[in-house]
Amino acid sequence: MNTSAISSLFDPNMILFNVEAKDYEDLLKKLSAQLIEKGYAKESFEDAVIEREKVYPTGLPTPGVMVALPHTKPEYVIKPAILVANLKEPVFFKEMGNGVNDIPAELVFVMAIDNPEQQVDVLKKLMDIFSNKEILTSLKSCTEVVEVIDILETQVF
Question: Model-level pTM greater than 0.90?
Answer without folding.
Answer: yes
